[in-house]
Amino acid sequence: MMLTEIDHIAIAVGDLDAAISYYERAFGGTVAHREVVEKDGVEEALIKVSDSYVQLITPVRDDSPIATFLGSRGEGLHHVGYRVDDCAAAIKAVAQAGGRLIDEVPRPGSRGTTIAFVHPKGSFGTLIELVQEG
Ligand code: CO
Question: How many Cα atoms within 13 Å fall on the side-chain side of residue 98?
Answer without folding.
Answer: 3
